[in-house]
Amino acid sequence: MGQWGFIGTIILSITMLVACTETIDTGDQIEVKENVSTKDTLPRQIVAGVDTVYYTIQLVYKLDGKSKDYTQNDLTKIVFTFPQVDSFSQTNIKDSINHIVQNLLLQNVVGELRYENVEGRMLEFLEEYKEHKTEMLEFQLPSMNWVFEMDIDVLLNRPSLLSLRVNQLEFTGGAHANSWTNYLTIDLETGKTLSLENLFVADFEEELLTISEAAFKRTVNLALDTNLVETHYEFSSGEFMLPPHFSVGVEGLHFYYNPYDLGPFALGAISFDIPYREILSIIDTNVLLLEPMEG
User: Fold this and answer.
1) Distance, CA of 266 to CA of 158 (rounded, Å)
2) What is the pLDDT of residues 225-271, one digit of tens each?
3) Are residues 219 and 178 located together in one domain of the fold?
4) Which of 187, 219, 234 is the last residue of a domain?
């Protein structure tokens, strides 16, 4: 069996500008204000600055047969692309991020650690394909190529947060390939992943659900007073529920339902966005550091 490994690296770094505050002399005192006249109406964004995480993109793959081109569609292959942090001011945080990424590479689709290393995972995938192909030949049935791809990319790289998106695609026979997307947000102060609850003040749930349900209904073209029980969207409780998958963006939060989360495969993936401006009252600004957007 042919085996190839290829590592590709692309060094990425993005320099951001820090927004300024305006100082106003009132005579008796110096008062510092942020965009006084429009402070409460301007959109918000994650505080910008020089990116503190420097990383390279790694590419690792194995192919069945003699092909050396992993971009071909007509072959069995398993492909991983992922960031590797090469430089950070705190070594323990750098190591923590890389550990999180490596664990993602070794998890199955339900988030369980399933493999000991990436090499072993790739070899096991190709071996299972060979066994499947042999069985199909025994019954004189055609066998189709298998594919597994995992692509981990950086969505947000700001001084306080790193946001990752994990796209997975798998085809091992059947009517169509399956795909999944999930997200992780890493606190660069601690090196730990943040849950949705970590981003908000206490008792945020009701307000976030109300705002999110309205955004969801706008996205799928439902009237705001529509009873979801009467639609083809399959919320298990009969009432609106947030998806387990979200990402922290520059200007707001992104929520994502994978195929099958709300109904049959044909329904596809559904996502919606909530600008920070709409949820300022419940955001924990010690975690999500925000500044007004101008221009």
Assistant:
1) 36
2) 999 999 999 998 889 999 999 999 999 999 999 999 999 999 999 99
3) no
4) 187
- Domain membership of residue 2 (yes or no) is no
Instruction: Kindly state whether residues 67 and 183 are assigned to the same domain.
Output: yes
Q: Any bridge partners for residue 278, and if so which?
A: none
Alpha helices in the chain (DSSP H): 91-105, 118-138, 205-219
**Residue 178 near residue 150, CB atoms below 8 Å:** no
Give the closest residue to 177 by CA, choosing from 151, 152, 147.
Answer: 147
- Global confidence as pTM: 0.82
Half-sphere exposure of residue 82, counting CA atoms within 13 Å on the CB side?
A: 21
Provide the token pair at 185. Answer: 């947000």
On whether both 173 and 248 belong to a single domain, the answer is no
Domain end marker among 167, 187, 207: 187
CA-wise closest residue to 181 among 165, 160, 194: 165
Do 76 and 181 fall into the same domain?
A: yes
State the pLDDT confidence band at 15, using cuts at 50, 70 and 90: very low
Q: By residue range, what is the domain housing residue 277?
A: 199-284
Least Cα distance to 187 among 83, 87, 53 occurs for 53
> Is residue 182 one of the residues assigned to a domain?
yes
pLDDT exceeding 90 applies to what percent of the chain? 72
Residues in contact with 131: Cβ distance below 8 Å, sequence separation at least 6, in sequence order: none
Average per-residue pLDDT in the chain? 86
Q: Does residue 117 contact residue 126 with C-beta atoms inside 8 Å? A: no
* Block residue for tokens 């990752």: 164
Query: Domain check: are 171 and 214 in the same one?
Result: no
> How many separate domains does the chain show?
2
- Long-range contacts: 86-95, Cβ < 8 Å, 24+? 86/11, 86/54, 86/55, 86/56, 87/53, 87/54, 88/52, 88/53, 88/54, 88/188, 89/52, 90/191, 92/191, 93/188, 93/190, 93/191, 94/53, 95/191
